[in-house]
Design brief:
Blueprint: H1 2-10, H2 22-29, H3 44-70, H4 73-76, H5 79-85, H6 89-96, H7 101-112, H8 117-170, H9 177-236
Helix pairs in contact: 3-8, 3-9, 5-6, 6-7, 7-8, 7-9, 8-9
Length: 237
């Protein structure tokens, strides 16, 4: 267990930071910094692609956390607002004054309820569609990152293969194994980071989108129930 913890810790360190564990540190740092096998110089393009993908992974994590915090049932459809809206016209108006998703949908419905129940329901649905578009725009960067990251990784893959083949040409067809592995390592590392970024981004985007659609449908349905209740009470009166 200690061995694995040490390797995770050394991922963030440059090669040779701890002389007592040079082998493990070199393997770990290879995920972040590509070096020329002969000179030891940093391969700036390969390393730059890796660090760009790492930056995108941090951005992706931030977007996932903010999206999950924003798209919550307790914030979109508070139980208190639901109970208030079910108490009658005055309660519905108080609930409609809320800035939550349910409050906005209900407010749109109440503006049209005087005309007809159908008009109120259409207004609630239109507000729900507008809310869906707003939420989709907020999480759209996740989809963009998820689709672009593999392309960036593929660019690094092509570059790594170019480096590997260049080593073959430079050696006259009998390349040194270390030199050949350096280019292949760059190709695989950038592919790895591209997938590390893309998989959570696309998965998170799909989950947040489905969660948003579910909350909006629920908000519209609850607003319709309130409108129907108000209309039935008005008919009885």
């Amino acid at each position: 267990m200690t061995r694995y913890a040490w390797m995770l810790f050394t991922l963030a360190l440059p090669s040779g930071a701890f002389a007592q564990n040079d082998a493990e540190t070199s393997v770990a740092s290879a995920f972040f910094i590509q070096r020329h096998p002969s000179t030891g110089d940093v391969e700036w393009l390969g390393s730059g692609i890796t660090w760009l993908l790492m930056a995108l992974s941090v951005l992706c994590l931030a977007l996932l956390v903010s999206g999950a915090m924003r798209i919550r049932r307790s914030g979109a459809i508070p139980q208190g607002d639901l109970e208030l809206a079910r108490k009658g016209r005055n309660g519905a108006r108080e609930a409609a004054a809320s800035t939550t998703l349910f409050g906005r949908v209900l407010a749109s419905a109440l503006e049209e309820v005087a005309h007809s129940e159908d008009a109120a329901i259409r207004a609630a649905e239109q507000e729900g569609e507008a809310a869906l578009l707003r939420q989709m725009r907020a999480i759209e960067p996740l989809s963009i990152i998820g689709n672009v990251a593999p392309m960036i990784g593929l660019f690094g893959t092509v570059y790594g293969m170019i480096v590997a083949f260049r080593e073959i040409v430079a050696s006259g067809g009998t390349p040194d194994a270390v030199g050949l592995a350096a280019g292949i390592g760059t190709a695989l590392t950038t592919t790895f980071w591209g997938l590390v970024v893309a998989i959570p981004a696309l998965t998170g985007h799909a989950l947040l989108r489905n969660r948003t659609e579910g909350l909006i449908v629920e908000a519209i349905r609850e607003a319709e129930h309130v409108v129907e209740a108000l209309d039935s009470k008005a008919s009885e009166a």
